[in-house]
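A quick aside before the break. I want you to see a complete sequence-to-structure record at least once, exactly as it would be stored in a machine-readable document. Don't worry about memorizing anything.
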Amino acid sequence: MTESENGLRERLVDVGVELLAAEGPAALTLREIARRAGVSHGAPRRHFPTHLELLSAIARRGFADLAERVRHTPVSGTCARPRAQVAALARTYLEFALENPGMYELMFRHDLLESGHLGLRDTSLPLFALLAGLVGEVRPEADARRTAGALWANLHGIAQLWRWRSLQLALDSEDIGPLLDAALAAHLGPEDGR
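That is the input. The structure line, written in tokens, reads:
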């Protein structure tokens, strides 16, 4: 692939990311992305033979952004306990979800995405493995993957319901912190120094 072809490929993904942020997943058509990128409606097909492949490339960018945030997640102390690391990762995840609702929605629609294409699984699964590893350190007696999956599902639900303002109404609170603490306690048990 020549540099100009690679540049067009990246520009199409950039435009898709911008369109997703502005208008949500429903706006991500090949035709609209091509129009906003200033190319013919057939040009994206040279780089992304299917619409799903373009969506996957856009979602991969989201996973890369989330992974970068996770790498830079501030955790108190250089030898932070695993539970503190899980709490920091959970907060980072919720912040990402609330700040990037369109991208967040697309990223987790594996039913729509070509998960095996463009390294999407290679970008998303290590994040879950990190969470499961930390959960295993906090709760060595538990099935770490299942517990991490339940925690992830809980965080996903919190993100969705918070974005829709349902939790604020039900809890009469604008502070997500106590809700996150309750989710962590439900899945990890009470804090005991781990």
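Two observations worth writing down. The mean pLDDT is 90. The two ends are 50 Å apart (CA to CA). We'll return to this after the break.
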